[in-house]
Amino acid sequence: ATGDTTRSMGHVRPLRALRATGEEFPVEATIARVDVDGRPYYMAIVRDITARHAAEAALQRQVELLNLAYDAIVTWEWNGEITFWNAGAERLYGYASTEAVGRRIHDLLATRHAGDFAGIAATLERERVWEGEVSHRRRDGSEVLVESRHVLVEDQGGRYVLEANRDITERKRAEAAL
After folding, report:
1. Rounded to an integer, what distance in angstroms lies between the CA atom of residue 73 and that of residue 118?
2. pLDDT > 60? residue 20
3. Are 126 and 147 in contact (CB under 8 A)?
4. Entry pTM
């Protein structure tokens, strides 16, 4: 009646709703105005987003757990672009997640290994898993030797590699000294 509202029409905004049982739950609501025969009508579309909130919370918990891992855990697309970089990778390599995601892993870390990447790729294609030692370069330019495990994962979104790396530099130095 006054034309004054705190809600913008046409914009989705999360709200809380109340079930008949008295339980509150998250909804998404949008309001639209339609003129019919010169008269304004308003329509509200309300969507229960409880399941989406639960899925988002579960994903967030998984990310938090991966960030608790001491080892570097990285995922990258088959073309080499990093899609996930945990806190362990930040500690080991010195790059923040925001600096690493979107970059090609082998370029960022100057990856070196005994064989060539074509051999690793062939093993991943055939067995879906590769394990071995690789050398990486940290942000500060120092070299780190890691025990690495790659797992090839395929889904509707494409092909990804889950890579977990453990720093074995000091262990290898100690073995060489013996």
Report:
1. 22
2. yes
3. no
4. 0.70
**Count of CB atoms situated within 10 Å of the CB of 130:** 21
Query: Which amino acid type is present at position 178?
Result: L
Identity at 117, one-letter amino acid code: F
- Rounded-to-integer distance, Cα 178 and Cα 174, Å: 6
- Rounded to an integer, what distance in angstroms lies between the CA atom of residue 100 and that of residue 94? 10
Q: Which two tokens stand for residue 10?
A: 């046409």
- The predicted structure's pLDDT at residue 12: 65
Span 49-80, pLDDT tens digits: 989 988 888 888 887 877 778 899 999 999 88
Beta-carbon count within 10 A of 69 CB: 13
Q: In what order do the strands lie in the sheet with 13-18?
A: 13-18, 24-36, 39-48
More confident residue, 114 or 134: 134
Scanning the structure block, which residue is given the tokens 């639960």?
54
Per residue in 141-158, pLDDT (tens digit) is: 999 999 999 999 998 878
